Amino acid sequence: MGAAGEQATSPDAGGGDLRLMDVVKRFGAFVAVDDLTLTVPQGSFFALLGPSGCGKTTTLRMIAGLEEPTAGRIHLGGLDITHAKPYRRPVNTVFQNYALFPHLDIFENVAFGLRRRGATDVAAQVTQALELVELPHLARRKPPQLSGGQQQRIALARAIVNRPQVLLLDEPLGALDLKLRRQMQLELKRIQTEVGITFVHVTHDQEEAMTMADTVAVMNAGRIEQLGAPMDLYESPVTTFVANFLGQSNLLPGRVLSTAGGTIVVDVHGQGLRLPAERNRCSNGDLLVGVRPEKIRLSHTTDEPSGATADTNRLTGGVVLDASFAGVSMQYVVRMPWGQELTVFAQNLHLTERFGPGTAVDLVWEPAHTFGLDGDATAGVVVDGVPVGAGVG
Amino acid sequence: MAVTTLAHPQPGGGSSSGGVATAFRSRRATPYLLLLPGLLWLALFFVVPVLTLVGTSLQTPLPGGDIGDYQQTFRIANYWDALQVAQPQFVRSFLYSGVATIVALLIGYPLAYMIAFKAGRWRNVLLVLVVAPFFTSFLLRTIAWRQILAEDGFVTPALKWAHLVPESAAMTASQLAVIAGITYNFLPFMTLPLYASIERIDPRLLEAGADLYGHPVAVLRRVTLPLSMPGIVSGTLLTFIPAAGDYVNAALLGNPGTTMVGSVIDARFFRFVDYPTAASLSFILMAAILVLVVVYIRRSGTEELL
Fold first, then answer.
1. Closest Cα to residue A107, out of A142, A77, A78, A156?
2. In this predicted model, what pLDDT tens digit does every residue of B178-221 receive, in sequence order?
3. Does B204 touch chain A (CB under 8 A)?
4. SS3 of A122, please?
5. What distance in Å separates residue B212's CA from the closest CA in chain A?
6. Once rounded to an integer, what is the mean pLDDT over residues A96-113?
7. Do A91 and B227 lie within an 8 Å CB cutoff?
8. What is the rounded CA–CA span in Å between residue A73 and residue A83?
9. For the domain A18-233, what is the CATH superfamily, name and number?
C-alpha cells in the first residue's frame, strides 16, 4: 500500500490474485495434496478448513515456498512463483507457534523482514505495525516475556509490516484459550479490512473459518470438498463430509419417489419428505436427506398425518431420548422408529414448551431447509444415523 | 526463595545414615547435602592442590642442599623468571591452540549443522562416528598423524602436486603438523556441544527467517549463529583450554622449535627437577586461561543464553 515503497515485485497488471493450478504434493507414497485448483481473489479473506492431515498446511507451505509442489503451478498475479525461493516471494507467514526469534527483542523481530530488504524507514514502519496490533509499549521486550496472545499479535505484526501481497496464517489462534481466540478473530478481521492484504487462513475450527472468512474451502484427504461463502457452505453442503464437518447435520437415508415442479418427494422409512430439486446433489435414486438441527421444530404428537405438505416436512414417531439445556437453546436427541437418533436444537423462546425424555414428538421443518446428498458418498465418513436394524438399545 | 523451591523435588534426599538424615531433614539442608560430595571432591582434589601449587611456585633452592631440595619462601620473582624462561612457548601455546580452535570451529560447525538438520535417520550413526576416535588411544592416534603427513604418504605428495604447499616443504615435525594434530584431537569436543545447541534450534525459526526475506546466508548469520552461540562458546572453551596446556601433540608431531608451555613444564618438572619454575608456569597458564575465558564469555554475551 501507500506506505510501503518497495513493493517492486508486484506486477499490478492483471491483479494480484493467487492461483493454484493442478497442484499435487506427495511425500513418498502419501499424497498430501491431490490435484488442487484454487483461486484466491486479491484482498479477500480466504480460509482453508479441514481436519488435521487433510493437506491444508501443506498447501499453505507450498504457497509460502517452504515446500515444493510435486506437480502443478502456483501463480501470484502475473508471477509464476511455483519454484521461487521463500525469501523471493511477496508472501509472509504467521506460523502456528509464532516462531518469534527468541534472541531478538520485539522491535528487531518486527524489523527482521524490513532489514533484510534494506528498507530505509525501519523505525517508523515497525512502530506503525506495533500500533496496528496495539502493543507499541513492548518493543524492547524479548518474546519469552510475552503472553501467548501478545506473541500472536507480534507474529502478525512481523509479517504484516512487510506489506506482502498474500499473508498466510497457519492455525494462528490454535494455542490461545477460547475467549482470547474469539477476541483475536475479530481483531484479525479488523486488521485485514484495514490493510487490505489477501489473507489465507488455515484452520480446523469451523466456527473460526465461518466468522472470519469471505470464502471458505473445505478440504478433506488432499482435495477441496466444497468452496464458497460460509453461509452457502452451511445452508447447502454438497457432500456428507461438509455437512458433518461444518456444523451438525441430520442425514436420513431415503429414496426418490417423484420429481415435479422443482420439488422432489422422497420416501424415508415410509414417510414422505419434500426438498427443492436445486438443493439435491444426488444423481441417482438413493440419497441422504439432510436437515440442520436448528431448522427442526418439535411438537407433541398429534393426529396429523405424517409426510409432506407444500410448506412442511413432518416426521412422526419420534421419542425424546435426551434433553440438555445449553443456555441459548435446548438440545434434544430424538430416537426415530427405525432406530436412528436425530439432533434438534430449539431456541429457548418459550419458558414452558420443553420436552422431557420419553415424550412422543413429531419433527417439523420447512422443505426449503432440506438438502439432498449422494448416499454413496458416506464411505469413510461418520454419519449420525445407522441403517434400520442396527439400532442400539 | 530459590533454595526452598529447589529443594522441593528431592524431599529427604541424601539420607544415607539415619541419624544424620533426621537431624538435617529440613528443606533448607537438602540442597547442601546434595552438594556435599561434589564440594568435598573439589576441596580435596582442586583447592588443596592449587594451594600446594602456589606454595611450590614461591619456593627457592635450599642453600647447600641437593638437587631437588627446596625451602618454602615467598619469592614472587619466580614468576618473572618463569616467564623469561618460557615466553616463546607461551606465545606458541596460545597461537597454536587459538588457530586449532578456529579451524575446529570451521570444521565442526558445518558438521554439527549437517548432523542436526540434514542427517535424518543417519543422525545417531554420525554422532557415534564423531566420538569413535576415542575408542583408540590418544597417543596412537597422534602418532598416526606422522604416517599421514609422511613424505611417502599420499597426503603430502597430493598437496604438493596441487601446489598447495611448496615442493621443498616438510610436513612432519612442523608447526602445521602440531596444529593439525591439536585440531584433530579436540574436534569432538568442539562438535558435540555445537551439535547439542544447534539441534535445539526450532527449524521453524529458520523457515521464518527465509519467509521474512532472509537469504540463507542472512538466516545463518542472523538466526542460526546467534541461537547456537552457547554451543560455540562451550565448544571453543572445551577445545581451547585443554589445547593450550597440551604438550603431547607438540612432542610427537613437532620439532624443538614448536614446543608449547606444556613441554616446558614437563621438562622443568621431570628433567631439571626445577619444581618452583614448573609450578609458576602452571599457575601462569591457569590464570591466563581463566582471564581469557572470562573476557571471552563477557564479550560473547552468552550469559543469558547459557
1. A142
2. 999 999 999 999 999 999 999 999 999 999 999 999 999 999 99
3. yes
4. helix
5. 5
6. 94
7. no
8. 9
9. P-loop containing nucleotide triphosphate hydrolases (3.40.50.300)
